[in-house]
Amino acid sequence: MSAALIDGKAFAAGLRDTVGTYAAAFEAKAGRKAGLAVVLVGEDPASEIYVRSKGKATEAAGMNSWEYRLPADASEATLLAKVVELNADPAVDGILVQLPLPRGLDDQKVIDTIDPDKDVDGFHIVNAGRLAVGQDGFVPCTPLGCVMLLKDTLGDMSGLEAVVIGRSNIVGRPMARLLADENCTVTVAHSRTRDLPEVVHRADIVVAAVGQPEMVKGDWIKPGATVIDVGINRVGAVGEVKRLVGDVEFSSASKVAGAITPVPGGVGPMTIAVLLRNTLVSAYRREG
Ligand code: GUN
């Protein structure tokens, strides 16, 4: 392996510490703690784990954490009423509805019921619009975390060729926008891209966010490029211990890249750290 490892775990720990310092300053100034409310509908095991770690990290940073659980068969009206109640609660700075919602509930309708100024996930249509036109709002946590890692690794990114693989609303689309704002020349590649290896080979920066285990191979990567792997895929045959792999084949890519994020320990820990940061930003904005 010749690539430098981009240590997202360490960077995220530093960011959580910084948030903790500012959270204490906020409490001293405002006379209350900043607070994040998380709503979980149903009992999806992966979502339970996410929600528990979000709650722990929020409290560890010196902020209030509230968790609301609704049964998997909760009606849309019940869920929307909960969101409306949290919108009106002055102690709540951030609202996160854990996705995916159970079948029958409309993710975007629920998200768009959140007050955009409490939408710390940055998924509300108003925040997507603000990002698209360059206004201040909330930016989705995972792509913002990727940009923080890239800036820390590369410094000024002006003029670099960036290829984002994947065009989801949660990662690919906002990622492309953020990289353009950093003055990169951005290509968005996806499942219909012709000759993906050739497109990836142009890139100084590769961001892989497709959810396909080890899809991006080492010989696609331009020597010295910076590789950000957003994928978290659980692989292993039935009966085997599962292991986590990214969307990039680490064994081959790490021989060619200049710097690369590992899975786990790369992008993953950044998401919660940025969520805490967004919640604190919301608290300061709301207090004026
Ligand atoms: N499910 C998995 N990750 C996330 C996230 O960052 N936000 C929300 N709301 N749901 C998720």
Structural account:
Its EC number is 1.5.1.5, 3.5.4.9. Residues 140-285 form the Tetrahydrofolate dehydrogenase/cyclohydrolase NAD(P)-binding domain. With 288 residues, this protein is an alpha/beta fold. The chain folds into two domains: 30-119, Rossmann fold; 141-268, NAD(P)-binding Rossmann-like Domain (Rossmann fold, 3-Layer(aba) Sandwich), CATH 3.40.50. It has helices spanning 8-30, 45-60, 76-88, 107-111, 125-133, 141-154, 172-181, 196-201, 250-256, 268-287, and strands spanning 4-5, 35-41, 64-70, 94-97, 161-165, 185-189, 205-208, 226-229, 233-235, 243-245, 259-260. Bound molecules: guanine (GUN). Guanine binds at residues 50, 96-99, 121, 141, 271.
Overall number of strands: 11
CA-CA gap between termini: 49 Å
Radius of gyration: 19 Å
CATH superfamily of the largest domain: NAD(P)-binding Rossmann-like Domain
**Largest sheet entry:** 6 strands, parallel
Write the CATH fold name of the largest domain: Rossmann fold
| Average pLDDT metric | 97
Count helical runs: 10
Q: Report the principal-axis shape.
A: globular
Bound molecules: guanine
Examine the secondary-structure arrangement and name the CATH architecture of the largest domain.
3-Layer(aba) Sandwich
> Poorly predicted ranges (pLDDT <50, ≥5 residues)?
none
Order of helices and strands: EHEHEHEHHHEHEHEEEEHEH
Helix content: 40-55%
Order of strands, widest sheet? 1-11-8-7-5-6
Number of domains as seen in the coordinates: 2
Oligomerization state of this entry? single chain
Q: Which CATH class of the largest domain applies here?
A: Alpha Beta
What percent strand? Answer: 15-25%
